[in-house]
Amino acid sequence: MNIKEIVSQMTLEEKAGMCSGLDFWHTKPVERLGVPAVMVSDGPHGLRKQSDEADHLGINDSITAVCFPAACATACTFDRELMHEMGVTLGKECQAENVSVLLGPAVNIKRSPLCGRNFEYLSEDPFLAGELSASYINGVQSQNVGTSIKHFAANNQEHERMAGSSEMDERTLREIYLPSFETAVKKAQPWTVMCSYNRINGIFASENKKLLNDILKEEWGFEGFVMSDWGAVSDRVAGVIAGLELEMPGSNGVNDKEIVKAVQTGIMEEGVLDKAVERILNIVFRFVENRKMEVFDREADHKKAVEIAKQCIVLLKNDGILPLKEQEENVAFIGGFAAKPRYQGGGSSHINSYKVPSTVEMAAKYGTIKYAEGFSAVEDKVDEALLAEAVETAKHATKVVVFAGLPDLFESEGYDRTHMNLPECQNRLIEEILKVQKNVIVVLHNGSPVALPWADRVTAIVEAYLGGEGIAEAIADTLYGKANPSGKLAESFPLRIEDTPSYLNFPGTGKKVFYREGVFVGYRYYDTKKMDVLFPFGYGLSYTSFELSNFAVSKKNIRESETLTVSADVTNTGAMAGKEVVQLYVRDNTGAAVRPEKELKGFEAVSLQPGETKTVSMELDKRAFAWYNEEINDWYAATGDYTILVGNSSRNILFEETIRFESETELPFEVTKDTMIGEIVNHPKLEEYVKKNLLPLAASLTQNTDESWAAMMEAMLKYLPIRSLRSFDNVSNELMNKAVEEMNELLK
């Protein structure tokens, strides 16, 4: 298909029309040139496609589809292969339903546990989010269906999301809020990128040239087109110029006319519009020319959703009570979520699910379960009669499983949470049950961290997150040991909201939110501060045991252009098949910048049979050691020592090895009279000159028989600017200026 030829035959009005949606879900056709309309659909964990008879405003119910686990759950697998497989399944569903682009994945960083949309986002860690999203995108797009990675960028709250500005420095943006997008673009090339609603440092994402063109397209090499989030456009012409190709869902022609007018009056060159249309048509025809027949087998895909959900579950605590024994008598299931599991979040990703069995129903195959509702699954309201019934049931049971969590109204797109607490009715019931029963297991249904005031008194905690429509079967199989929990937390669980790094700056005021915690997000903050947390990043238990051994690095010294290979053996030393996640972190010991105590730079999910051993290998390049240096506007790793740390959570490091990194990048440096002596005394190009010519001029400062005085003055010398030497030994301006000139010559 000759796209440029098609564009050359379009009228100005047709070109402008291609840059906005026909309706809520379709692009515009140009029938006379054979350009069809194609459909996009909400995702990313299921197909929220409206039927052909729907209202096209995105309000009415969508078709029946399969709801896979939400990102808060799938991220806990740390499993690239699983994410790819889920993507392949969703891609086939899209082909079956003639959907060209699935709107997802969502990779915004979980800056605060209170963000209402955290259940859709993968992690607090950009490396993990980037790697998993790239695998998911490659899976979907292997079926010739596009994805739309979102929300680009720094959309970390729902409060004032369509008007507010995320205010941060360049380093924070580059190290925390952009890498998940960067990795996905470079490793998977999503067909589209969806820009966010918010401003970034005062400029709307939808008209942010630095973001959409300079970084995304020029620097990262993005080849697809950028679409707006629904209703995110402010100035449409500014958006086209900045790199926003498609406005969704369109503006009933209003903005199309603005585009035409801008070209006619010379505000925008027609060539800019042509390039935008070309990018859109490339994707439209990529889908159209690769259509294939697929059958949306909902039953088969439901089974896949169950298997994926089993691998998402995180076992947070187990005092030997799990797994339950089959046909064990007097087991009680308590809580409204046992009969009606909360398995997905609210908002644009809400799936009209194929079928959602209850955990009570799914556990029946393992024995007789006594069920008491105890509290509602939809509201925070104490029903004294239900509470009394539940406590009485618990009193006469041998083991009690309480199904707790957040009702739909507690977390959803559109608004943020105001606290981390579970509904009070649930906490009260758990406290009452603990008074009459010591064998209490709690299963959690939630999309983000919650406070657990009773965590130290229950015998087991199972984090099911929002595990999709198959979560009931997954939980039942996990409770009874037919599935081995293997998930690891993709976010930290703080003890309380006041401990979180963004607490004083979330959600902001006056349409601004300042990211003053900088790069210290999640475990980067907690581990650096050595703060207690409820459960750390990367943490998760198993019904079996694992041993790591034979840890090795390929070399002890590497140059910037080289890579380092880190390997270790993992053995399943228990009696049950399971999966371990080996995690690799890097610590910068150079002191060249203020950095977190450690940062995740590698991970591998390893499935093992009892007694089986596998070797994992992870490769680190310059980027694994680097931080974003605003002075050179690039990634920089200083020469010096770095520690490689390997373990199975950020708080359980099993092996450490320090290596030497040699930088091949020279930072710009100029000596002036205000340069401190400490800045130049150890500079490789200046060290000899300084010791020979400058330090003798200040010798009188440190030549004192009083050791404490000499030590103090030696320390002070580091912070003395060169100009201060004029005060000692009659150093003239001429001599000082000559020294500055000579040092700058040496730096050339």
Automatic annotation (TrEMBL):
<dbReference type="InterPro" id="IPR026891">
    <property type="entry name" value="Fn3-like"/>
</dbReference>
<dbReference type="Pfam" id="PF01915">
    <property type="entry name" value="Glyco_hydro_3_C"/>
</dbReference>
<dbReference type="InterPro" id="IPR017853">
    <property type="entry name" value="GH"/>
</dbReference>
<dbReference type="InterPro" id="IPR036962">
    <property type="entry name" value="Glyco_hydro_3_N_sf"/>
</dbReference>
<dbReference type="InterPro" id="IPR050288">
    <property type="entry name" value="Cellulose_deg_GH3"/>
</dbReference>
<dbReference type="InterPro" id="IPR013783">
    <property type="entry name" value="Ig-like_fold"/>
</dbReference>
<dbReference type="GO" id="GO:0008422">
    <property type="term" value="F:beta-glucosidase activity"/>
</dbReference>
<dbReference type="InterPro" id="IPR036881">
    <property type="entry name" value="Glyco_hydro_3_C_sf"/>
</dbReference>
<comment type="similarity">
    <text>Belongs to the glycosyl hydrolase 3 family.</text>
</comment>
<dbReference type="InterPro" id="IPR002772">
    <property type="entry name" value="Glyco_hydro_3_C"/>
</dbReference>
<dbReference type="InterPro" id="IPR001764">
    <property type="entry name" value="Glyco_hydro_3_N"/>
</dbReference>
<feature type="domain" description="Fibronectin type III-like">
    <location>
        <begin position="580"/>
        <end position="650"/>
    </location>
</feature>
<keyword id="KW-0378">Hydrolase</keyword>
<dbReference type="GO" id="GO:0005975">
    <property type="term" value="P:carbohydrate metabolic process"/>
</dbReference>
<dbReference type="InterPro" id="IPR019800">
    <property type="entry name" value="Glyco_hydro_3_AS"/>
</dbReference>
<dbReference type="Pfam" id="PF00933">
    <property type="entry name" value="Glyco_hydro_3"/>
</dbReference>
<dbReference type="Pfam" id="PF14310">
    <property type="entry name" value="Fn3-like"/>
</dbReference>
<protein>
    <submittedName>
        <fullName>Beta-glucosidase</fullName>
    </submittedName>
</protein>
<keyword id="KW-0119">Carbohydrate metabolism</keyword>
<keyword id="KW-0326">Glycosidase</keyword>
